[in-house]
Write a structure and sequence with these properties.
This is Alpha/beta hydrolase. By secondary structure, the chain is of the alpha/beta class. 43% of the residues lie in helices and 16% in strands.
Length: 315
């Protein structure tokens, strides 16, 4: 069973954290979820890593970002990617104060990792041993056209940003579950590709229902303006992977391609028929990429006292 606890941030926000695996594991994997989601989005990756024969070589940590899931809401000015990057630095110090970490980010989570690297380069360099980017971007909304014509995409973006501004002023309220159930066809179209399990739609709808309207609306502005390809270019020495679905309407393949171009050693995977929720739609592919990076990180560690670190651990 996962260990559940809270991490208190300097501004009083409390983050819900879940950790599985021994505290003295040689590597810690931190899994960061996307916008309006929560840590449960990674349940298939957590299960795969912790059920592996050598799963004890990895400690797996997920947490709900501020204003999401079971974490508390926050002041509107802190609903930014910059703040999420600062939060990640605090979480790392609290849950993995020593040893290498592999950072795994989906959508907003990937952008959080980039912001952490940009704002805390010394801290990042001292701790981070590997990266996995899932359905994310380093170029704001440069490539986001929702699978539609550019003209229609501009209209949708205008409506989306206007609506986000309204939601941002709604405080810690949450969307009524009945409304979200009615919107499930739209959620399915926006987030998933050719195939979608009913349980996955229910999980996503449940996560959106937990997100404060302030977070749903407040974070949107910084998503569109973040550009961190230069930051990524300085991380080319790290083992890394980037994955995307070819039906992703929010972060389409050019987003992952530009990340891979900035990190030349990155393994790029494009999943046919998949949408934005790769961890749920193609868990085996995501698990393989994650364990591949973990293998490389574990293989590069020095021998541990009392024995050597198994190169295949976490597979």
């Amino acid at each position: 069973m996962p260990e559940r606890f809270e991490v208190a941030l300097p501004d009083g926000v409390r983050l819900n954290v879940e950790a599985t695996g021994p505290t003295d594991a040689p590597v810690t994997a931190i899994l960061l979820h996307g916008w309006t989601l929560d840590g449960r989005a990674w349940h298939r990756q957590v299960d795969a890593l912790t059920s592996a024969p050598a799963g004890g070589a990895v400690r797996v940590v997920t947490y709900d970002a501020r204003g999401h899931g079971r974490s508390s809401c926050m002041a509107l000015p802190t609903a930014t990617l910059a703040q999420l990057g600062d939060d990640l630095a605090t979480v790392l110090d609290a849950v993995a104060p020593s040893g290498p970490v592999v950072l795994v980010g989906h959508s907003m989570g990937g952008m959080t990792i980039m912001e952490y690297a940009h704002r805390h380069p010394t801290h990042f360099a001292a701790r981070t041993a590997g990266l996995v980017f899932v359905s994310t971007t380093a170029e704001g909304h440069t490539h986001t056209v929702y699978g539609l014509s550019p003209r229609i995409a501009r209209l949708i973006r205008l409506a989306e940003t206007t609506g986000a501004g309204v939601l941002a002023r709604c405080g810690s309220w949450r969307a009524p579950r009945a409304l979200l159930n009615a919107l499930q066809p739209s959620i399915r179209w926006m987030l998933f590709g050719d195939r979608c399990e009913p349980a996955d739609i229910r999980l996503v709808t449940s996560a959106v229902a937990r997100a404060a309207l302030r977070s749903i609306g407040g974070f949107r502005a910084s998503f569109g303006t973040q550009h961190r390809l230069d930051t990524l270019a300085a991380l080319a020495h790290l083992p890394a992977a980037a994955l995307v679905g070819d039906r992703d309407r929010l972060t389409p393949p050019p987003c992952a391609e530009s990340i891979a171009a900035a990190l030349p050693a990155t393994e790029l995977t494009v999943c046919p028929g998949a949408g934005h929720m790769l961890m749920l739609e193609r868990p085996d592919v995501v698990n393989a990429a994650l364990t591949g990076v973990l293998r490389r990180v574990l293989a590069e560690l020095p021998p541990r006292i009392g024995g050597t670190t198994p190169a295949g651990a976490g597979a």
